[in-house]
Amino acid sequence: HVLVTLHAISPEAMTSYSDRLTSLFAEGDAFREIWRGDGIALMDMKDGKPVLTTKVHFGYTDGISNPTIRGGPERYPPDHQQPCESWLFVLRDDAENYFVPEPRELGLNGSFAVFKMISTDVVGFEKYLQSNKEKIDPELLAAKMCGRWRNGVPLSLSPETDSPPGGIPLDQLNNFEYVNADGSGDPKGLRCPVGAHMRRINPRGQPVTGQGQPGGSNTTHRLIRRGLPYGPAYDPRQPYDGIERGLLGYFINSSIENQYEFVLSQWVNDAEFAGAVRLHPKSKDPIIGTQDPAESIFVIPQASGAPPIKITGFSSFIATKAAAYCFLPSVTAIKFIANLR
Fold it and tell me: Which of 54, 56, 62, 149 has CB 3.0 to 4.6 Å from 153, enough for a Cys bridge?
């Protein structure tokens, strides 16, 4: 099976090139297309005109935190984490925890990726936020569950408001730490709950499974994530329109077991991922975790000894519609394949 990803600058270009590819696939009965899915950046109105955004269907600004790759050509915004080694994402001979797959001409400089089609229960998510408004403001709850306000401002830098005085420049939205090397910071999650989505998938300096030192970088389990929403933007005035919404995306790494599967099993769906902090034994990632409403719980610590806010009874807000484990060959590997007889 071959999974082809086509990136285009407009819907018209997408249609044109998709038709061209379909025609090429049919030549000589080379390939038979069995599935197709289209994603497009969500639109928003600005000054009366539609503009592309980086939002996802739950309303959060996406794509703010990306791994810094040591020696990479990109210009990275400030980040407290240590740069990731390139072999975490590209199969190289200098890797510490795997061997390049054979034949070497095919494996070298390639990557592995998990492709997923994920549906998002936007109606259920918004309804659940409102159902707890007597306990906590719905927008604050959304921020606590994610770790950022929906506009991208992190709780670690602004725990009380999504519009701090003076604002936060875009290139500073990822410039923070949870726990410093001396143990200071926010180890108990008073600013950003330890069990929040963002803190689970990238715990930074929080001592967790796979990284037990305060201030550790947790880089060996990081992923490069690329994706686009599918379905139109959610309209709260017409919440029950029956249209499916979700995300099409890749999780790119050199070891699916040590990166993608580790994060999903150990950090997203395990209450013991932060051993130094006692989370409720049934707690999982509140946004992407696999939840049972009879047991689900998300605890929000409060300052000054006040009792924590306990949010319970929620179902899973996402569902995997399709998934595939893929190998992404390098350019030299594609040339090697093309010359096979």
Answer: 149
Q: How far is CA 178 from CA 138, 160, 205, 253, 320, in A?
A: 24, 16, 6, 24, 30
Residue 203's CB: how many other CB atoms inside 10 A?
24
Assign 260 to helix, strand or coil.
Answer: helix
Which of 53-67, 204-218, 272-286 bottoms out in mean pLDDT, i.e. has the lowest?
204-218
Return the pLDDT at 244: 95
DSSP annotation of 224:
E
Q: Are 102 and 88 in contact (CB under 8 A)?
A: no
- What is d(CA 251, CA 260) in angstroms, rounded to the nearest whole number? 7
The mean predicted confidence, pLDDT, of the chain is 93
Query: Is the Cβ–Cβ distance between 179 and 160 less than 8 Å?
Result: no
Residue 285 DSSP one-character state: -
Which residues make Cβ contacts (< 8 Å) with residue 338, sequence separation at least 6?
Answer: none
Helix ranges, the chain (H): 11-26, 104-107, 122-131, 138-146, 197-201, 262, 331-338
Higher pLDDT, 307 or 211: 307
Positive or negative, the Cα torsion across 86, 87, 89, 92? positive
Cα separation, 67 vs 79, whole angstroms: 9
Tell me the pLDDT tens digit for each residue of 224-272.
999 899 999 999 999 999 999 999 999 999 999 999 999 999 999 999 9
322 falls in which pLDDT band (50, 70, 90)? very high
Query: Which residues make Cβ contacts (< 8 Å) with residue 314, sequence separation at least 6?
Result: 128, 286, 291, 293, 296, 298
The Cα 310–Cα 288 span in angstroms is 18
